[in-house]
Design brief:
single chain; 51 residues; alpha+beta; 3-stranded antiparallel sheet; 1 helix; 3 strands
Length: 51
């Protein structure tokens, strides 16, 4: 598994807090420490594609 350093700068779409990448038996996901919520990867893909 490769580690994507560019993905380390993602912000939460709800509160703009930093997101942490996690892995479990279902796969990779992002977690916001401020919201204490897992974030759907589809929202984060849209955030990364914006200029």
């Amino acid at each position: 598994m490769k580690f994507n350093h560019a993905a380390m700068n993602l912000n939460c779409p709800c509160c703009a807090g930093k997101l942490l990448q996690h892995i479990d038996r279902h796969g990779l996901y992002w977690y916001c420490l401020d919201c204490r919520q897992a974030m759907p990867s589809v929202l984060l893909t849209q955030q990364r594609s914006q200029p």
